[in-house]
Design a protein that fits this description.
The structure holds 2 protein chains of 2 kinds. Chain A is α/β, with parallel strands linked by helices. Chain A has 27 helices and 38 strands. In chain A, strands 10-9-8-18-29 form a 5-stranded parallel sheet. About 1% of the residues of chain A have low confidence. The longest helix of chain B is centred in the middle third of the chain and has 12 residues.
Chain lengths: 840, 239
């Protein structure tokens, strides 16, 4: 007893006990650095407390007596509250005990990389306490073993040498949560090492060592990221009231979600409401959709905003705030009884958009016979005229027409957002000989001609002379290059059937221009169901009108027809450009939304992500409904804060960061710069611009980056090139190359950044200074950049650096790639390394 | 008896920094705490070893003198932008010059061309007292009278203001290095209607910061390619 009290008499000895309690196991050097005393002093104290603190080969830890002594001190602190016992070491030295988990991935990794050699090398790295290997880390059965390993070695941080974080981040995150580790880092040694350097095993092993060591240096500096608890709103905003929007809203309302359906046009229904029939159904499209709209609007939990647009979105998943801009309809919805008096009296005509311009409508009009809401509308372009005329306002008995109506704004709170704005139709038809009044029509126009409520009341007549055609040609794949519309083959079959019904005498023939057909052609049922003499595959198709007959000319065929239908494909919605400003996402090479780049809590449904037919859209809507409900079913959502931190002490108020931010998340408020955490997406574009280094990213700080570069620069591989890859495009392309097992030179080290805009010129200069022979930057194409112009800023930066470096400027290269363009990635890496090696 | 032997000397330089010391308010205090053994034009003694050596200017083409200074002193201080960043001579194509720290270990660096009175005076006294320099880690804009005026991305087309400005230089299209330059000089140049040249370097890497700034602003091609303009205090080439 006396011995214990004499031991506890000295503050340093007490501190040693507290430290060991907090950290579990500490090596001699860790103890030295955290106590800040010299070796003689420490030896003296450790000898004094040899009963309480014991050591094995590696580290010191508390004995049972030591635990008792601690308990004794706690009690004495309670009893004698006068004495202040230094509870936690005041010197802020954090001791990282890093454990490394290596995955063999069923021989996929260990087949190329010498895991034994990697293990041997890493065990000598500072702060690494233990290394464990698994055949397959990602499997459930490893959890117990890993838990024991973490407990036995007092591991606080983990580095996983495994596969790509793009595909496995969530899997490993769950795994680490289960074993009680908050801070971990993945070194991608499968997609970016084992799978791409199968031919050069020695260098691949060398590279794996460097990649894992860099991850260790990064994880050492990682801190716990703060966590946000958000109450999940049980409501969803659906942007776009076409087929996808209507169906998704209906499914969500069935699952008791509050749905706000926001539509830009005056009516729900979208494009499909125009079609005469939907293939696979015998009923007309309007009837099918009308039924869906009825079911939807009967439901009290659905609110429909027509003629409305999303002006702004703030917030995160679970709690978005959307401001909706409502344009005027000039007719008060709840006063109108739908009597058509105003439409009958209206003196002016316009082209009818619903009938694809084949008919005329009045200025005040019902968009189509089954429109919802069933209220007429005046377009804003015409309103000046109408204010002079006012006939409609005078004839309306219900006084529903208000020609002075203005715009209004309203704000809604939702837990998730769905973009279902659909697509546009291919419209560059001049070169295809499009001429509706000479009977060369597009497929939507043909649909109207066939439709029972169309211009010819359902009879199949030529537009030029209202005569039944005797033969009809359907030209397939009328679209921009190599983009398969997914539905035009099915559509051609539907047309053949309908023509057979309406004009049994008419012949239908189908033409493919093989220059336009996507490779390989996806003809599905078409080639088996149509006799060969009616199916023409040809090259260099052109159309010509002569003496009222239209002639199709191909490489080996020339034939005249009474009517020609251009089966046009889908193109990306031109409104996406506007929407990208509101909710950031990247687009693919054709311009459709890339779903994986949408922010958390934001979904895309229907043909906004690529061409889809009605049936595919139904499946997609159901899929998205399940995803949304499963995400928002918890009462609270727990998310990591991904935003930036700002040190007001360091901030010099130059305001350049407010100019750099694409989302205006940084703003000035009373002599300080404030961050709107809800707007910040964590792209890091503002970080390099701050010379005072007041801004930093919480999850990927500049310091972590620099230490990573330092470690990679020590690798003995020559020549070596560092490649900064943005998460959504560059890194994805590199992963694709891995998945496709495309071999490239192993001299490149890939570093992941959220956006290329995050790359500081210092990172580039430092890389060159520390011994990298070249710097590659793989970012997005300007129009595809998720962070609105982040890639453009990087391009400027690279130009400026080249200008400064002069001759050495050749060592820095910016290359835009798309996420699926692994060939460009591989070629760029090989070429660049070749040039660098030649220059030496 | 004063215990601190201090040497003020000059390599390839313009004497501007040393002259600035003569004009300091603390000059009298300096004489009271330190025994100045050597100061060009003032005094000259035969001491072999010094406690403190303040070096102005840079070492062009011959490092031996600098090596000798280093070996005879306990603490070496680089004084002024030439010694700290490379200065105007670093722009030379034939004999490019590098900061002193590229040749020898430097204990303290006092930037500026010449160092502004506040930085210089406080810096010298702190060094002699064995304390840290207390340089400002914020950028110049903090002390500028036109701070917080930029709203849109400025378009830089001029390097000299046409007339005395009444708002932020950048806003008026004049190149000003304020957003990257280290503060602490009380924005004396701005008060005299001269845009900041960035003589005090940057709180972080000077070259990288300059490139970052130039890539964010919209700058005309002529100015963008005029390296000597914004790197006049620092060599942009690596050794």
């Amino acid at each position: 007893m006396e011995i214990i009290f004499s031991i506890l008499g000295h503050p340093i000895r007490r501190e040693i006990l507290f430290l060991l309690e907090k950290e579990g196991r500490l090596s001699y050097s860790d103890l030295l650095s955290s106590l800040g005393i010299n070796t003689g002093n420490l030896n003296y104290h450790l000898r004094g407390m040899r009963d309480l603190v014991v050591k094995d080969q590696k580290a010191y830890f508390l004995s049972d007596q030591g635990e008792m002594a601690l308990e004794l001190m706690r009690i004495s602190q309670k009893v004698m509250s006068g004495e202040e016992i230094p509870w936690i070491s005041p010197r802020e030295v954090e001791i990282a005990r890093v454990g490394i988990v290596l995955c063999n991935c069923n021989h996929e990794i260990s087949g190329t990389i010498d895991i034994k050699a990697v293990e041997k090398y890493l065990s000598a790295v500072k702060n690494v306490v233990s290394i464990i290997g698994f055949e397959n880390v990602c499997q459930e059965r490893n959890i117990r073993k890993m838990k024991k390993w973490i407990r036995d070695n007092f591991i606080t941080k983990v580095v996983l040498g495994a596969c790509s974080p793009r595909t496995h981040q969530q899997v490993f995150c769950d795994l680490m949560n289960q074993v009680g580790i908050d801070i971990f880092e993945i070194a991608n040694i499968r997609e970016q090492c084992a799978w791409v350097h199968e031919t050069s095993k020695a260098i691949a092993t060398e590279k794996a060592k460097a990649l894992i060591e860099a991850a260790v240096s990064k994880v050492k500096q990682k801190q716990n990221t703060p966590i946000k608890r958000i109450k999940a709103e049980k409501s969803v905003a659906v942007i776009g009231g076409g087929t996808a929007g209507i169906l998704l809203s209906y499914y969500l309302s069935l699952l008791h979600f509050q749905v706000y359906l926001i539509e830009r046009s005056p009516t729900l229904g979208g494009k499909a409401s125009r079609w005469s029939r939907i293939s696979g159904f015998s009923d007309c499209a309007t009837c099918i959709l009308n039924e869906e709209i009825l079911k939807l609007t009967e439901n009290a939990s659905v609110t429909v905003f027509t003629i409305s647009e999303v002006a702004q979105v703030t917030g995160t998943i679970g709690s978005f705030e959307i401001s909706v801009l409502r344009h005027p309809r000039y007719v008060i919805e709840n006063k109108c009884i739908g009597c058509h008096r105003c439409v009958e009296e209206c003196p002016q005509n316009r082209k009818n958009e619903y009938e694809m311009g084949l008919q005329e409508r009045k200025v005040i009009h019902f968009p189509f016979p089954y429109s919802y809401p069933y209220v007429p509308v005046i377009s804003t372009d015409d309103i000046e005229n109408c204010r002079d005329c006012r006939i409609c306002a005078e004839v309306c008995d219900s006084k529903a027409i208000d020609l002075e109506q203005g715009e209004s704004n309203l704000t809604i709170n939702v837990g998730a957002i769905v973009i279902a704005t659909g697509c546009d139709l291919y419209h560059e038809l001049q070169e295809w000989g499009y001429d509706p009044y000479n009977d060369v029509v597009t497929s939507p126009e043909f649909e109207r001609i066939l439709a029972t409520d169309g211009p010819s009341s359902g009879r199949l007549l030529r537009l030029s002379d209202s005569v039944e055609p005797e033969n009809i040609a359907i030209v397939q794949c009328v679209n921009s290059d190599a983009l398969c519309s997914h539905y035009c083959c099915e559509l051609a079959l539907k047309y053949i059937e309908e023509v057979r019904e309406k004009c049994p005498a008419a012949k239908t023939e189908i033409f493919f221009d093989l220059n336009q057909v996507p490779n390989p052609p996806r003809m599905g049922k078409l080639s088996t169901l149509i006799p060969n003499r009616y199916l023409h595959m040809t090259f260099d198709l052109s159309l010509d009108t002569r003496n009222g007959k239209t002639i199709i000319r191909g490489a080996d065929i020339e034939k005249s027809f009474d009517m020609i239908v251009l089966n046009i494909g889908m193109t990306p919605n031109k409104d996406l450009e506007k929407l990208r400003r509101v909710t950031g996402f990247a687009v693919d090479e054709y311009g459709f939304i890339r779903e994986e780049t949408l922010i958390s809590g934001c979904y895309a449904c229907g043909s906004v992500t690529g061409p889809k037919d009605y049936h595919e859209t139904i499946i997609d809507a159901k899929d998205k409904a399940i995803q949304i409900v499963s995400k928002l079913s918890e009462e609270y959502l727990i998310t990591n804060v991904q935003s930036i931190t700002l040190d007001h002490e360091k901030c010099g108020l130059c305001l350049l960061c407010t100019l750099a931010c694409p989302y205006m998340a940084l703003y000035v408020k009373e002599d300080r710069i404030e961050i709107d955490e809800f707007k910040c997406r964590g792209c890091g574009i503002c970080i390099p611009i701050c010379s005072s280094k007041a801004i930093d990213l919480e999850i990927n700080s500049t310091h972590q980056m620099l230490s990573k570069i330092e470690v990679l620069a020590r690798s003995p591989i020559w020549p070596k090139v560092i490649a900064f890859c943005c998460l959504s495009c560059g890194y994805a392309a590199a992963d694709q190359a891995g998945t496709k097992r495309m071999s490239y030179l192993p001299n490149v080290f890939i570093v992941r950044v959220p956006c290329t805009g995050f790359i500081d010129s210092e990172h580039i200069l430092k890389s060159l200074e520390l011994g990298f022979d070249g710097v590659l930057i793989f970012g997005c194409f300007d129009e595809a950049c998720k962070y609105l112009g982040g890639s453009r800023k990087t391009k400027n930066k690279v130009e400026a650096i080249k200008n400064v470096l002069g001759k050495d400027g050749e060592k820095v290269l910016y290359i835009p790639v798309s996420a699926v363009d692994q060939i460009k990635f591989v070629d760029a890496v090989n070429d660049f390394i070749g040039v660098i090696a030649d220059a030496k | 008896m004063l215990s601190k032997n201090v040497l003020f000397t000059q390599l390839t330089g313009c004497s501007g920094c040393l002259m600035a010391i003569l004009g300091l308010e603390i000059f009298k205090d300096l004489m009271e705490v330190a025994k100045v053994d050597f100061f060009p034009f003032l005094c000259d003694s035969l001491e072999k070893e010094y406690n403190f050596t303040f070096v102005e200017g840079c070492s062009v083409n011959d490092e031996r003198q600098l090596m000798e200074l280093r070996s005879n002193t306990e603490i070496l201080v680089a004084l002024g932008s030439c010694a700290v960043l490379g200065g105007i001579t670093s722009l030379s194509e034939e004999y490019p010059n590098y900061p002193l720290k590229e040749y020898v270990d430097v204990d303290y660096e006092i930037p500026g061309c010449p160092p502004p009175p506040l930085i210089l005076g406080r810096g010298i006294m702190n060094i002699l007292a064995g304390k840290s320099l207390e340089l400002d880690d914020r950028v110049l804009c903090y002390s500028c009278k036109y701070a917080k005026q930029i709203i849109d991305t400025p378009h830089i087309s001029k390097i000299i203001p046409v007339k005395p400005p009444n708002s932020c230089f950048l806003k008026e299209g004049v190149l000003c290095m304020g957003p990257i330059a280290r503060g602490g000089c009380e924005a004396l140049c701005i008060d005299a209607n001269i845009p900041c040249e960035g003589c005090t370097g940057s709180p972080s890497n000077y070259i990288a910061s300059t490139i970052n700034m130039l890539s964010t602003l919209s700058v005309t091609k002529e100015i963008r390619e005029y390296n000597g303009l914004y790197f006049r205090f620092s060599n942009f080439k690596r050794k």
